[in-house]
Amino acid sequence: MKPTIAVIGGTGAEGSGLALRWARAGYPVVIGSRSAEKAATVSASLGERLPPGSAPLTGATNAEAAQAADVVVLSVPYSAQEATLQQIGDACQGKILITVGVPLKPPRVSVVWHPPAGSAAQEAQAQLGEGVRVVAAFQNIAADHLQDLSWEPDCDVLVVGDDKAARQQALELVRAAGLFGVDAGPLANAGVVEGLTALLIGINIRYKVKGSGIRITGIPREG
Amino acid sequence: MKPTIAVIGGTGAEGSGLALRWARAGYPVVIGSRSAEKAATVSASLGERLPPGSAPLTGATNAEAAQAADVVVLSVPYSAQEATLQQIGDACQGKILITVGVPLKPPRVSVVWHPPAGSAAQEAQAQLGEGVRVVAAFQNIAADHLQDLSWEPDCDVLVVGDDKAARQQALELVRAAGLFGVDAGPLANAGVVEGLTALLIGINIRYKVKGSGIRITGIPREG
C-alpha cells in the first residue's frame, strides 16, 4: 500500500507536475488549494492526463488534504508559506513535510536571497516544531519539465533534511517521480539547494535557455 | 601576450594544480608562498611535470607574486584569508582577484557554513575595496582532479563576480585550465557556490566516492 501524498498548493505548475508524476507511479494524491472548488477542477483536469492504472488524484482544501495524507508536500510561493503552514501545521504532526519552494526577492530573482533562518525549509521546521520532519527537495527542477511526462530528466534532485529516514522516503518519492535524487545532508544545507535556483534563473537568462538544471557528477547512478 | 597569473598559496594542492594547468596553457605563473624558499622549491618541482612549450612557472613571496601578476588567484585556507589579503591588498589594486577557497567549519565540513559577509569572496571584496574586482571560481573542483592533467573533466566551474568583464576573464582562465565555466552571476551568489563544496564533501562521504562535482544541464556546451 503506497502512502497518500498531499500536494499543498498543488494547483500551481510545480505542484501539479509532481502530483501527476506521483499518481502515475501509483501513489494516491490529494491536491490542496485554498479553494476546494479550484482543487476539484484542477484535479479532474489533471486526472484526464493520467494513463490507465494510475492512482486516484483528488482535490480538497489545504487543511483537508494535509489531514488525509501520509506525506505532505508544500508547493506554495514563499510569500504564502507562513500562513499556509499555520493552516496545516496540526495536520502535519508526526508526518514528513517536503518543501519544494524557493524564497526569491523580486525583482532580482537571479540573485541569491536567504530568509533570516537561512532557508525557507529551516523556517518551516522552526514554525512546525520537532514533531514534523521537514525535508527540502525539487527546488531546482523547472515546472515545465515536471509537467512534461515525456521529458527525459538530465538534472538531479538534491534532498536535504535532518532525519535520515525522512530523507530516504523523500528519495523514494523522487524516484517515483521519475527523477534521480541525491542525499545532500542536513537541513542546514537547504539554503544552498534553494539558492541554486536563483543561480539557475540567472543562467537561463544569460544563456538564453529554459530550464537549466544541475547534475551531481562522480557518483554511482542506478538505472 | 598572455597575462601573468599569481597563485597565492600556490604550494597547496588546489593552487599548484591550477598553476600547472595555466603554465601548460601558456600563461606565465608565479606561485606565491609565505616562504620564498618553499615557493622556489615547489615551482621547480611543478616545472618538471610541464610539457615542453609551457610558459615559465616561478616562485616568490605572496606579496612579490601579487605585485608581478596581472591576475591574482587566492588559494589559501579560509583561516588565512584575511591576513594574506592584508599582505597583498595594495598589490591587487586595479587587478582581478579570483578566490578559490571555501569557508568550512571543522569538524562539520559537510554542513554549509557562511561567514558573516555571506561568503569568503564577499569578505575579500569588502576587505580589498572597490579597486579590486573579486571573482569566485573553482570552489567545486577537487584538488586531485586539478593535479591530474590527464583527467577528463565532468564537472563545471561556476564563476561569480560583480564585474562582467572580470567574470569573462575568469571564464577565459577556466577554459585555459581545461575546464568548462558557467557565468553564475553577481558576487552575492558566491555563498551558494562556496556552500556547494560542503554538500559535495558530504556526498563524497555518503556515496563513498572521491571528487564528486556538479554540472549545469540544459545549456549549450562548446567543444
TrEMBL record, chains A, B:
GO terms for biological process: copper ion import; NADPH regeneration. InterPro entries: NAD(P)-bd_dom_sf (IPR036291), NpdG (IPR010185), P5C_Rdtase_cat_N (IPR028939), STEAP_metalloreductase (IPR051267). Residues 4-102 form the Pyrroline-5-carboxylate reductase catalytic N-terminal domain. GO terms for cellular component: plasma membrane. It comes from the Bacteria. Keywords: Oxidoreductase. Gene3D superfamilies: NAD(P)-binding Rossmann-like Domain. GO terms for molecular function: coenzyme F420 binding; cupric reductase (NADH) activity; ferric-chelate reductase (NADPH) activity; NADP binding; oxidoreductase activity, acting on NAD(P)H. It holds the Pfam family F420_oxidored. PANTHER family: DUDULIN-RELATED, F420-DEPENDENT NADP REDUCTASE. This is NADPH-dependent F420 reductase. The gene is npdG.
